[in-house]
Amino acid sequence: MRALLAGFEPFDGATVNPSWEAVRQVAGVHAVLLPCVFGESLERLRAAMLEHEPEVVVCVGQAGGRADVTVERVALNLDDARIPDNAGNQPVDQPVVPGGPAAYFATLPVKACVAAARKAGVPASVSHSAGTFVCNHVFYGLMHLIATDFPKVRGGFVHVPFAPGQVLDHGGPSMPTPLVAEALTAIVTAAVLVQDDLRLAGGSLH
Ligand code: PCA
User: Fold this and answer.
1) Which of 5, 32, 133, 160 to probe ligand 1 with, by most ligand atoms within 8 A of CB?
2) How many structural domains compose the chain?
3) What is the CA angle 168-174-12, rounded to 5?
4) Which CATH number goes with the domain that contains 49?
5) How far is the centre of ligand 1, averaged over its atoms, from the C-alpha of 61 (Å)?
């Protein structure tokens, strides 16, 4: 499988990021660790794409508070940071790419990816917002790179819940890392193998 998976370093005072903990457990793919920094994260991703020449790129980030693995569908051309990134940047209402389209859709078969994760025994769903922080920035930047420089690559983004160790004090939804890694394996496999996405309802009412 010529697949590249990206995970993020911890941010917002955390000591782990479940995205990287899970990505590094997926066998048979290239894995790259991205800094939680606007701009630099995308440069690191582009360098890894040039190095490994993947056919599929799936970036993965932490979405604290979500209860399942979510396959993102829409990347927005918008940086609007509620907290500073790991370099102290806090852009407000800036485009990711000046003059770029307002949004891109993931080019992964998102429904098939969700179905594959569920078949592997992991709760998963489609999400229609990756937020406006570094994850959306990387997702949009990835889709722009694909649109401009890497036309044969399929790409997308997956958000994952907190690891259990991150919610010990306050509770809330979490998912064990091996389960997240299972879901990512199923998602990447579906992304490589499935040409035409499944026609299954996956939208949300709000
Ligand atoms: N989650 C953040 C940035 C890095 C990460 O893992 C986000 O959702 O934007």
Assistant:
1) 133
2) 1
3) 70
4) 3.40.630.20
5) 5
